[in-house]
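Collaborator request, handled under Task 6.
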Amino acid sequence: MNDKVEKEFNVGGNIDTALSGQYELKAANIIKEAWQLTTKNFLSFSPTIVVLIILQIAIFMIALKLQLGDTSILFTLLDGSADSTQIESIIQSVIVANFSYEIISAPLYAGVCLMAMSHATGFKTKTNHIFKGLHFTIPVMLVTLMGLILQGLAGAILPFLSLYISMAFSNSVFLVCEKRMTPMRSLLLSFRAVNKKLLTVAAVYALILVMFFAAALFYGIGFILVLPFFFHVKGIIYRDMFGIRMKVINSGGNGTPPNNNNKQSQVFDA
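Structure tokens returned to the collaborator:
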């Protein structure tokens, strides 16, 4: 007789410790583990990153074409033949297209975040797991929209303030998908938790910013490593801050501990 035995447990921190700051978060440990996860999952995770980039570029180009009508007008910026009115129109179109692609591609971005989070708990993923974020399409798009608006307002005051807001809201997508929080509450809790460990989180993201800059200098080739590393950093920080609910399902029969002949699976309930 085979009986399924389900056990739920938490990996990492929890909401209470996240808001109180009563947990350990070291920049060196985060960087080391993120690099290990990046190399370990490189072959399986990198194709997902490529898919995300291709889809985001496609969404951006479609949005830009809808704004400009004829994208060949962009070449007028390169040859210097564009007048001030055309330049202003192009800049506005690029801003709108960038805003649009971030909102529309947010569920796919969330799917990649969830995959990195799974790696941080020892799970392997497949490329099609990028679509897991589609289960949370509306709340993820809303939380992304709210975050972008607040970043824009902050950036209008001070450019670097926008970077701070982006970092402070970095856990919001995870909270929406993994903790099933509302967009507004996820933004607030992420903001409060990050500020409890602001120096550590800022140090890690400062390194990532430098890595992005270095990757761009090498014709973007370095992004194949930097982007997976970035997502793994996000997953590790979220795990250590808020914790991740896990479910273990043992099919061993009669409730006995699993052995080599038992079927055991660990499921992330997202």
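The cover message to the collaborator said: "Confidence is low (pLDDT under 50) at residues 255-269. Residues 4-267 form one domain. Please let us know whether this matches your experimental observations."
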